[in-house]
Amino acid sequence: MLKPFRTIIAPNRPNRVGFSLADAAILIGIAVILYAATQFAGDRPTTRPEIDLSPSALPLYTLFSLGRMAAAYILSLPFSLIYGYIAAHNARAERVMMPILDALQSVPLLSFLPVVMVTLTTVIPGRAGVELASVILIFTSQVWNLAYSFYQSCRTVPRELDEASTSYRFNWWYKFRHLELPFGMNGLLWNSVVSWSNGWFFLMAAETFRVAEKDFRLPGLGSYLQAAADQGNGSAILIGFLTLSGVVVIMDQLIWQPLLAWASKFTYSMTAADETRSSWFFDQISRSTIASFFTRLTILPLFRVLDQRLGGPANLAPARPPRRPSIVWRVVLIGLMLAAGAGLVQVVLSLASLPVEIYGQIASATVSTATRVALAVAIGFAWTLPVGVLIGTNRRLAARLQPIVQIVASIPATAFFPVLVAIMINAPSGLDGAAVLLMILGTQWYLLFNVIAGASTIPQELKEASKLFRFTNVTRWRTLILPVLFPYVVTGLNVAAGGAWNASIVGEYTEYGNKLYTVHGLGAMISDATARGQYAVLLAASLTMIITVVAINRLLWNRLYAYAARRYRLD
User: How far is CA 22 from CA 29, 103, 106, in A?
Assistant: First the structure.
């Protein structure tokens, strides 16, 4: 069958790991962008609305924050589907796209903020530019785990289903619609819950960003909580926290539970499950005339149009010979290379201006933060693996625990972290323990929801076979549960580690009651350099974090992805 993309899941495809020229080009590009941000962070018009801490302001602030979160997610989902699909089906594109994904998820949020904020407020003056920048920054906190999830799903589609789609002459669109998207739906939805949780986590930073003497602030639930924490207003913190909890509960019952109940029909299994996921609101929607009318009026006609335009099993397009790049594209490419080269020179000059002692401090801080990241991921993995399997394989228990877990996961730790710091300041572990705890609170849900998604996809016939052969618990875990979970665990560990590095920016440097609390680490250096306007230090520390995370991804996680695609597929 002729397809516009070359598949990545063929068993004879060699695995490509390690560093490449694409890695170097990406790092150079990021370095140039970060340097440009430090140079353009001069005098720019800013907005600083006063945040009203009265309870009457919370409904409007909540709507503002929900709008930003929803806009970011609407951008994240199609981007993730397109990005993950292309990376999983085109070997040449994958060698460039996955290093880009590794690098971008490792870019510290506070390092990325000046680039977006200053650029957009220059091009789009006033509040509109700050609003758009806030949405883009929330997008960067939501999108990476979605892209990784769909990429992993496309790589681990069962081989017999892939061969069946070939036998039925599915073109790329039919295969995507009827096989790859349904197979990856559970992972996408569980990671969507995590994306919203991560968006809430970084909402306070996106709505209350400061750099040097500049103050970019937007009215919203995140800025309300931050202002309450800055003023030490306990009643406002409590009211804001309860409002956020209420929003999370409503979203869980009206959005996530119905979607997960709907997605349960896409579980890969040859036999019917003993129990199916249910949702009271989904049952109501299923019986809704308006919802049915809306579906027939909009969604079904849209798919019919796409089927007609993109073709079905009998409408296969002939292969097109590859085109050579036009002269215009060659000129554009040369221009980009020259600009990157000029920017690289400026980056080198900026880094060379720093004293050697700064690089020694950065190296020491990197080791400290890496130790906290490893500890946080290990602790999170230790409890999320058994709990996630328990929730994903026991539908009755899941009906009770999943809403609680999703509600707790969606409450951002940054909302109460300043208070937590004040409590733990006198604990034996001190601020180091508080920093690790924030990393755990911010990243453990990546692991838990990926484990739940993997456990919920265990085929029913394999469960019945394990009962028939009277497997012991150890045998069941070794031969059934862990092999099925392995690709999902790799995805969870990858994005959790990346999230922990980003969480270090908040966990190692926080303010409460006009007091600054810091611990030695790379995240603290980035936050301090941002606050002081020390852009050369910010550039050096940010590049160090990016290079460290990319190196770990390329040398560890990508090898595990390749191993999962080769050994642990539902074939």
Answer: 10, 11, 16
**70: buried, middle or exposed (CB in 10 Å: 19+, 13-18, 0-12)?**
middle
The secondary element (H helix, E strand) that includes residue 512 is: strand 509-512
Where in the chain are the domains? 45-267+358-567, 281-313
- 516: closest CA among 418, 444, 438, 387? 418
User: Which two tokens mark 275?
Assistant: 């129990």
Crossing angle, helix 234-251 and helix 221-231, to 10 degrees?
A: 160
If DSSP codes are grouped into helix, strand and coil, which group holds residue 28?
helix
Residue type, 46: T
Three-state DSSP state, 182: helix
CA distance 539 to 381: 32
CA atoms 290, 293, 294, 300: torsion sign: positive
Name every residue whose Cβ is closer than 8 Å to that of residue 172 and which is 6 or more positions away in sequence.
Answer: 3, 4, 5, 89
> Cα 432 to chain center, whole Å?
25
Q: Yes or no: is domain 45-267+358-567 CATH 1.10.3720.10?
A: yes
Q: Which pTM was predicted?
A: 0.69
- Written as one string, the DSSP assignment of 501-533 is HHHHHHHTEEEETTEEEE-SSHHHHHHHHHHHT
Tens of pLDDT, residue by residue, the chain (571 residues): 333 333 333 333 434 444 555 456 556 666 666 665 555 444 444 445 678 888 888 888 888 898 899 999 999 999 999 999 999 888 888 888 887 777 777 666 656 666 666 666 667 766 777 788 888 888 888 888 899 889 888 888 888 888 888 888 888 888 888 889 988 888 888 888 878 877 887 777 778 766 555 667 788 888 888 788 777 787 888 888 888 888 888 888 888 888 888 887 777 655 555 556 677 777 777 777 767 777 777 777 877 777 777 765 544 444 455 556 567 767 777 887 887 788 788 888 888 888 989 999 999 999 999 999 999 999 999 999 998 888 888 777 776 776 677 667 766 666 666 666 666 666 666 677 878 888 888 778 888 888 888 888 787 788 888 888 888 888 888 888 888 888 888 888 887 888 788 778 777 887 666 677 788 898 889 888 877 778 788 888 888 888 888 888 878 887 887 787 777 766 5
Whose tokens are 């990508």? That residue is: 558
Length of the chain: 571
Residues 536, 350 contacting (CB under 8 angstroms): yes
Using alpha carbons, list the distances in angstroms from residue 58 to 5, 200, 486, 505: 49, 16, 43, 27
Q: How far is 458 from 289, CA to CA, in rounded Å?
A: 34
Q: Which residues, in sequence order, are bridge partners of residue 403?
A: none
The stretches of 315-355 forming alpha helices (DSSP H) are 327-352
CA–CA gap between residue 61 and residue 51 (Å, rounded): 9
Q: Are strands 214-217 and 208-211 parallel, antiparallel or unpaired?
A: antiparallel
